[in-house]
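From the pipeline queue, job 12 of 40. The input is one protein chain; the requested action is below.

Action: predict structure.
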Amino acid sequence: MTAGSDAVQDLLPMVFAAPGEARTKAEAVLRHRPEPLHASVAHQVIGIWQRDFGDMRLALRHLRRARDWAARAGSADREADVLATLGVALVHSGRTRQGLDALGRGVRRGTGHTRARVLFRRAYSWWVLGHHKEALEDVRRAVPVLRQAGDVIWTARALTLRATVHLALGAVERADADFASAEDLWAVTDQEHDKADAVESRGLAAFRSGDVPAALRLLDEAEERYAKLGTPTFMLSIRRCEVLMAAGLAAEALAEADAAIAELDSIGGQSTRKAELLLAAARAARLADDPATAIARAALAVRLFAGQRRSWWEAHARLVLIGARHAAGRRSGRLVADAAAVAERLVELGAPAAPEALLLAGRMALGLGRTADAERYLAVAARSRRSGPPLARMTGWAAQALRARAAGSTRGMLEACRRGLDVLDDHRMTLGASELRARATAQGAELAALAQQAALRSGGPRRLLVWSERWRATALSAPPTRPPADPELLRHMTAYREIAARAEATRMEGRPMPALERDQRRLEREIRSRTLHMRAEAPHGGDRFDAGRLLERLGDGVRLVELAVVDGRVQVLLCGRGRVRRFEAGLLAAAETEAEHVQAGLRRLAHPGAQARLPVVEAAGRRLEELLLGPAVTHLGDGPLVIVPPGRLHRVPWALLPSLRERVVSVSPSASSWLRARETVPPRGGRQVLVRGPGLATGGAEVTRLADRYGGATVLEHRDASVPRVLAELDGAGLAHIAAHGTFRTDGPMFSALRMADGPLIVHDFERLGRSPYRIILSCCDTARFATVGADELLGLVTALLPLGTAGVVACSAPVNDAAVVPLMLALHEGLEAGLPLAEALRDARAALPQDALHRATGWAFTAFGAA
């Protein structure tokens, strides 16, 4: 390209359509000693590229040269245009006053169409600074002129900006209208970068309207578009962090924000973006229960925003800083006053976060006994319960609940808790992915805790049971949305199995495998991303728990023990014979510690020669019984027992507890889940499926003998034990027995797996079943391990099966000895053939084992779940 070419003027629109190409061509122009006008354009193009994707110091240097060349060219409009670009860069570098001065001069120098473009960029700068009224005024003046000039690109940009400002003010419907108009205009242009930005903005709008799956899908689509252009995505990271936090993925949001900050620092990027990323990181750290990190990030964000004169953003950062300090244990009247001042400032700014600040101020004032102040703050915060997106209404109902509690109205507080949790139910059930449903419950933890406290104080055992059930294992209340027949998703899952199988083989050979591990992590991200995009097929909150129906189904023979945790102490709710009784047991923290000791003991007993550890493990079992059941032990009767533990006690081997060793015991994530399992009808035909995976120490010996016992069972082994074939046979089976190595992923519970011939069978695979087997036995290690997420939710293999039609599961919560498992499994199936339910057959199978330490530990490690 030569300096005299008419194409030089085309470089400015090109920088947002093909940024890298525009920069290369602009550098070529400067190598040929161009005339002043063309030199101004070329330096401006390079400056824009550096401003948005590179080093701010270089950006300012090029833009100042562009301004000087424009002045030499004697073109007022050219100078005005460059001053606008320079002003935006100065604002992004934190030099707010200089930036606004440059923009003001640009408005005065420009005329007509050019002046409208300058007004748009000043409006953008006002938005960056949080001055939304000024931003709307400038864009209001710019849009008619741009439309009259037939400037499609700049009109679309202006409409997108106006929509974004509307979103910041909570006007979602106005934003949607502007985004739709802008999208129509972008469709007739080749501005690929602007199109990607429009998709990103639509993602933000979807989030503001409460559609988290659509927001994640659109943000991922925008990232793919940016990647093709080779441009960084700092603003996208900020927006994705916001969505991830709302979805309960705070740790991921923190990791993304910190990674973006590091990348921005490495290129000397925009100071404004760094401050916004620090704020996102602080919010994420606060939600991830890391107040120290939140304080550090928020304090730095406050300093940067203050230096940039961005009062809107500074107020939000101060809100996070105050909340983090409160979470870290700081209590003082000064902190309450700070929260109230921030709330007042946010109200003045028209910020949707104002109710959150008022709720914080009210909560802290209550903690200090300042009830009059608390009522004043909470009354205003409670107004948000009537309208707005779900999480804003949740804030309002939380404020209303605290008001009622302070006023001594138990009835009013419980009604506020119920209404708030109903809002969250509605939101949660729009989410298709079971992981998102589970994690979203964290938003309701405070309301659930308030209700349980009130029920414990004044409501009686039955009310406490109802409230315990109201927020326990709710992700299992309805089947997850089946993954779509998405060819790309299926391709990723097939590739994942192949890579994982190769990685496992390489690991067994003791060779390094960094490339395979990278590919495996990449495919995991792809699979997870596409599943998180799913919306619920038929949103509903599941059936409401009915204590009367539970007691009726239990009858006179079965007892159900639900362990509720209120203020850190275990409350035992014993249900049966038409009533609910309450007993107080030990501290949850002590029980968790003891459960870990038991798990360590079982791991040792899985190896021959550890007989000496048996008394230690048995003693730990006695202590666990005292902590978890307390005085309820003497009231359990002698019939079958159902245990409903909180999520944090999911690894307790209940058969180890002395009073339960000879009992028929099953475990359920909730009483509601047990009821559904009890009422699940077995499929017709009741066919049996036996699966033997590779690499077992015994070669899966029980499968061969079970095949002889069942006769017509489908046996899958060797190459036949592939994931597609296993899933096809499991679908709708009456009984399935899978002997395969199991792995539990603490870092990604949905990728917990059973090892098949062609690679791992993961939780995401099970969710593709039309109906999971009525009964399933998993005779392998760690299949009954779960990740505890949200308020009281569990993610893992067993919980993936329960909502899909499985009424009973036998699985293992600890490593076991493969050889000792064989006689246990054979005895278990003998009981099933005699017509016993799983829990009773497992009890009898334990009794039939040799009484040495190895076999006893093996029996204790297995648990029956459900009611079949």
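Job complete. Residues 690 and 715 are 5 Å apart (CA to CA).
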